[in-house]
Amino acid sequence: MAGLQELRFPEEKPLLRGQDAAELENSDTFLLAMDTDWKEHDIETPYGLLHVVIRGSPKGNRPAILTYHDVGLNHKLCFNTFFNFEDMQEITKHFVVCHVDAPGQQVGASQFPQGYQFPSMEQLAAMLPSVVQHFGFKYVIGIGVGAGAYVLAKFALIFPDLVEGLVLMNIDPNGKGWIDWAATKLSGLTSTLPDTVLTHLFSQEELVSNTELVQSYRQQIGNVVNQANLQLFWNMYNSRRDLDINRPGTVPNAKTLRCPVMLVVGDNAPAEDGVVECNSKLDPTTTTFLKMADSGGLPQVTQPGKLTEAFKYFLQGMGYMPSASMTRLARSRTASLTSASSVDGSRPQACTHSESSEGLGQVNHTMEVSC
User: Fold this and answer.
1) How much is the mean pLDDT over the chain?
2) Do 299 and 169 touch, CB atoms closer than 8 A?
3) Which contacts of 214-221 are long-range, i.e. CB under 8 A and separated by 24 or more positions?
4) Cα separation of 292 and 308, whole Å?
5) β pairing state of 261-266 and 97-101
6) DSSP assignment, residue 118?
7) What residues form DSSP beta bridges with 141?
8) Comparing 13-17, 93-97, 188-192, 341-345, which segment has the lowest mean pLDDT?
9) Less CB within 10 Å around the terminal CB: N or C of the chain?
10) How many CB atoms lie within 10 A of CB 258?
């Protein structure tokens, strides 16, 4: 265990729950803040139209940052807090940013006609090359949450040459079994659709203790997203198949994600078990596992500062962010790598970083972080 060294992330206070709720309650402010530079597009794909908003233009050989939201949300409800965070502007000024809304989930979407067949999760992934081609992207770095993380992972499996990196929050690589399917059906009979979706987004503890935040999301999910369209997306997500990935070397001809991956989950998230299992199925030399304290089911909303720091580090590891632009995270990492001694057999609670013996600069690792 001599190769293990400790990285300590400086503590950062989570966003106040009241602040989250106040922002969400004022839907005009929440949904329209800092949207003036974004341009909307409806893009034809083999499986129907996709609503996309984009800011910036392709910058040389740099990939675009492409996001995909969770079920029950859209790109605004899922990502506005994160991308409007002050430190995030340091990143986005270097990249074109492209937000994708799942079919019929965008603000003001028309209700699908009777009998409309919502695309399968595989078809949702197969719609994304049309977006890449439309804007002339060479490849993308994907950021997905929940259902969106599943779609982006499937996209990277089918079209690996189009994906340079992935940030997957709250991903569940497993399909729904019969017991899960029956429980979902029963919940749908006894609860409203927004309340059913909230159990996917928040843990039971959050549903009880974070009343203002949960109530705000309940209101936005019920008022902003077309309910009939949401029901179709919800049904399709709960009919998904296993992601069908395995860690290289564990089974013959194992298929896994070839690009660098950062897995993210809150320490109180309903998706925690699924993310841990996904981590066990990915290549440990290219995977970072980030477990965030005080963040719950929506780390991009409750802890945008910590997530921004981790994303900067992820991009730097891919060669896109110069070290001078790193702030708290860079100083913490530099100090710990130069001063930390070897760690014994017990795993530290902060972060373990397993380095190869080939020397500095040649890092071969799975990094597991609690911050």
Assistant:
1) 80
2) yes
3) 215/21, 216/20, 216/21, 216/24, 216/25, 217/24, 217/77, 218/194, 219/24, 219/25, 220/24, 220/27, 220/30, 220/77, 221/72, 221/73, 221/77, 221/193, 221/194, 221/197
4) 12
5) unpaired
6) P
7) 65, 165
8) 341-345
9) N
10) 14
Mean pLDDT of the 343-353 span: 32
pLDDT in tens, 143-183: 999 999 999 999 999 999 999 999 999 999 999 755 555 55
Reported residue count of the chain is 371
Distances (CA, A) of 93 to 57, 87, 136, 310: 11, 11, 19, 17
CA distances from 209 to 202, 204, 212, 268 (A): 11, 9, 9, 12
**Residues 32, 15: Cα–Cα separation, whole Å:** 20
For 137-177, what is the HEC assignment?
Answer: CCCEEEEEECHHHHHHHHHHHHCHHHEEEEEEECCCCCCCC
pLDDT per position as a tens digit, 220-275? 999 999 999 999 999 999 999 999 899 988 888 889 999 999 999 998 899 999 99
Q: Which of 342, 323, 306 has its CA nearest to residue 10?
A: 306
Q: Which residues contact 111 (CB under 8 A, 6 or more apart)?
A: 104, 226, 228, 229
- The strand pairing partners of 101, in sequence order, are 51
Looking at the DSSP assignment, which residues form a beta bridge with residue 44?
49
- Amino acid at the residue 176: K
Cα–Cα distance for residue pair 90/314, rounded to 1 Å: 14
Q: DSSP letters of 205-255?
A: HHHHH-HHHHHHHHHHHHHHS-HHHHHHHHHHHTTPPP-----BTTBTT--
Cα Rg, the chain, nearest whole Å: 20
